[in-house]
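Meet today's protein:

…
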Amino acid sequence: MNIMQSEKVAVPASELTGLDSQVSSHFGHCPAFVVSTIEDGKIVDVETIENSSHRSCAEPVMLLADRGVKVLLATGMGGRPYMISQQVGISVMKAVGSTVREVIDNYLKGNGTLFGDESLCGGGKQH
């Protein structure tokens, strides 16, 4: 019996153009998240989800958790959403690349590291 490995991976995006979107460095305030389903090392489905109104730091994290996301590839994020991600079982890794497609390809090649304290932003609109 062949068991397929499947996971959902999200990337904050500056546009609503799926894999061709530029990566947004503003995790909580990005216009959208591109959620890709990966099976056996290949992208098999892509969904672009508009980001919500961001009334709290938990809101964008819960939006992804509700979609079954297990890995978030980001360039930076604040401490509170990072902690919430950890609590709901989402691993946060450094995004490598400028488009969503590049970031996911690099992730699939094993390029990227887990977030640490040095990757966290101090808050405000700069992340």
About this structure: The domain at 6-112 is CATH 3.30.420.130 (Nucleotidyltransferase; domain 5). The chain has one domain: 6-112.
